[in-house]
Specification:
β2, α2 and β3 form a beta-alpha-beta unit. The longest helix is centred in the last third of the chain and has 12 residues. The two termini are 16 Å apart. With 222 residues, the chain is an alpha/beta fold. α1 packs parallel to α7, α2 packs parallel to α3 and α3 runs parallel beside α4. Helices cover 29% and strands 21% of the residues. It is globular and about 40 Å long.
């Protein structure tokens, strides 16, 4: 059984992709950002994701890339979803959506206008909330005040990222009211190398969470 609301990101090895899918991750992510130690080329991501069951979402992470760059990379990598971590505009999101990809836009929990930013997104845009701290775009493995995102649950289902692991996932889910979850560095033995024991216990904890009032899907609305 796959967990469609749970994503494991920053994958760089085919063996990790196969293991995470077999363990039940409903979404797997590759990073297309040159400054990240987990950066891969679109051609590499296509090889990583080849043969995955159709239920598993293939997600690409971008930071301040041009819409046409994201679309081209998404096509090469055979992605389902484009995750935007920078200052991408509404027009960028709409361009990628028109190209046939689901979009997840990252918002930062420290932003005072978090709810207003969420309301301003184009329809069908998924939302991922992270702390917005650290050296690189992304969760940076840092836990944060997950309750800062809770008001978004009254607008639409959303996901959270940042320091999530088996030990704190239930607390994070309850405090944030999130319906989806994204983890990367907290499940690693080294950058880009997943720790199988950590992944397994994390997915087991995710499977035990209470069902949210409204579901979050990394591939968009089924």
């Amino acid at each position: 059984m796959f967990l469609p609301h749970v994503k494991i990101c920053g994958l760089t090895r085919r063996s990790d992709v196969r293991f995470c899918a077999a363990a039940g991750a409903g979404a797997l992510g590759a990073v297309f950002y040159a400054k990240s130690p987990r950066n891969v080329a679109p051609e590499t991501a296509r090889e990583l994701f080849a043969g995955l069951p159709p239920e598993v979402a293939r997600v690409g992470v971008f930071v301040n890339a041009l819409a046409e760059t994201m679309i081209a990379a998404a096509r090469i990598a055979a992605l389902d979803t484009v995750q935007m971590h920078g200052t991408e505009t509404r027009a960028d999101i709409e361009s990628v959506q028109r190209a046939g990809f689901h979009v997840v836009k990252v918002l930062r929990s420290r932003d005072a206008e978090l709810v207003a930013e969420a309301r301003a997104l184009p329809p069908q845009t998924g939302i991922l909330v992270e702390c917005g701290s650290g050296a690189l775009p992304g969760g940076n493995g840092l836990a944060w005040d997950w309750s800062a995102a809770a008001a978004l649950a009254d607008i639409q289902p959303f996901a959270i990222a940042g320091g999530l692991n088996a030990g704190n996932l239930a607390e994070a889910a309850q405090a944030s009211r999130a319906a989806g979850f994204d983890a990367s560095s907290s499940l690693e033995s080294a950058p880009g190398l997943k720790d199988e024991a950590a992944v397994r216990t994390y997915l087991r904890a995710a499977a035990e969470l209470p069902a949210p009032a409204a579901p979050f899907f990394w591939k968009g609305i089924p």
